[in-house]
Amino acid sequence: MEWETVIGLEVHVQLSTATKIFSGSSTAFGAAPNSQASLVDLAMPGTLPVLNRAAVEKAVLFGLAINAEIGKRSVFERKNYFYPDLPKGYQTTQLEAPIVGRGDVEIQLEDGTRKTVRIHHAHLEEDAGKSLHEAFHDEQGRGMTGIDLNRAGTPLIEVVTEPDMRSPEEAVAFARKLHAIATTLGICDGDMSQGSMRFDVNVSVRPKGEEKLGTRTETKNLNSFRFMDAAIRQEIRRQIELIEDGGSVVQETRLFDGDTQTARSMRTKEDANDYRYFPCPDLLPVEVTDADIDRLRAQLPELPDARAERFMQQYALSGYDAGLLAADRHIADYFEAAAAAAGDAKLTANWVMGDVSARLNAENLDIRQAPLSATGLGQLIQRIKDGTISSKIAKQVFDACWQGEGSPDEVIDARGLKQVSDSGELEKVVDQIIADNADQVAAYQAAEGAKQKKMFGFFVGQAMKLTQGKANPQQINALLQEKLQ
Fold first, then answer.
1. pTM for this structure?
2. Which of 74, 96, 99, 93 lies closest to 21, judged by CA?
3. CA–CA distance, 124 with 56 (Å, rounded to integer)
4. pLDDT at 272
């Protein structure tokens, strides 16, 4: 039987406000446990929440960026459940009247296919604290759980999609696009390792051609695109095998361990009525006026799709290259600064998407942490273009700059890497190669076609060996072709 996968996402986007959504407590990451949880965050008797205006404005900005309906009157409600890291015993959130209504996000797959993913809504809410299970044990060595409430009350928007995605590739493409939009807007720092963006993935399968949705499971708190892809693939396989073996899928919440690449059931899935939602008596409805919307719309930056389109027009980049570069605001900024310094956008794009990105991924760095600045990369590309160094030597210079040896010009001078372009000097090198390799010269001159072309590489290699890779490749090729006739 052929199966079709149906995927929907719920994405928790931590808003980059200085203080929490209902209190003046700091949201800074990395503080000592429980040092940033105020009496308001804990809902102590006699305290009242005060809504953070910046959180509302960031939510509206997101809504405008995805062409969504803006809730001009949104309401906060209490979602009641008990969990140790939820000190109030309820979460202040939105259900019936969210701040952001229906919208849409367009994604593009690697093969160029475009698709629109519908957004059901996005609502404002407060985050819970964090449970720490690994580091705590009692005197008998039994496991204990530590609770850090610093994150309790941090403002979030939860973005809920329609079940429009049909593959892990589409889900990851959507997640990347949402990450790009949020970071470009500046409403979230996008650092998934710190929990700034977390993905809950709803997956079900159904026979191909079937209209009715299958029973879904929700895998919670995925904090990397790679883990999301792996978790979805594993869950699809599990559900199909379960059904084909005569079993049935149970609606449940699951957890995925990215380190061990294993998933497990956490609890049966709750429905909305299990949470006993009711309007929060301590918070008035939020009113957003047309003037507020117009003011915020005027603050919208150049969004990823628009920036990609400009890159295609301004820099003559392909749609694929432009989309990759524009997907991350900081990478796009780095590229533009480097291209301006280099005077060659296409070569700069190749370096940013190639060597720079590879090194960042290998060392788990953000582009803002790159040891080689954008102007430094531009200088390196300039030295390739003006013939100071070859493309091959440029790789050595790049590595040295990345290791902190200085700017490209400083590395080139210190290591003596300037390309040999003196025609007289190169002619001596070629003459020496021909004199030292009489048998190879004779064989080359007797050969034809592809065989001769392959043998030509031997002489080029000898020239590079004699000059320690510093010979100008174009000049060496021309001299060898002339003298090997």
1. 0.83
2. 93
3. 8
4. 62
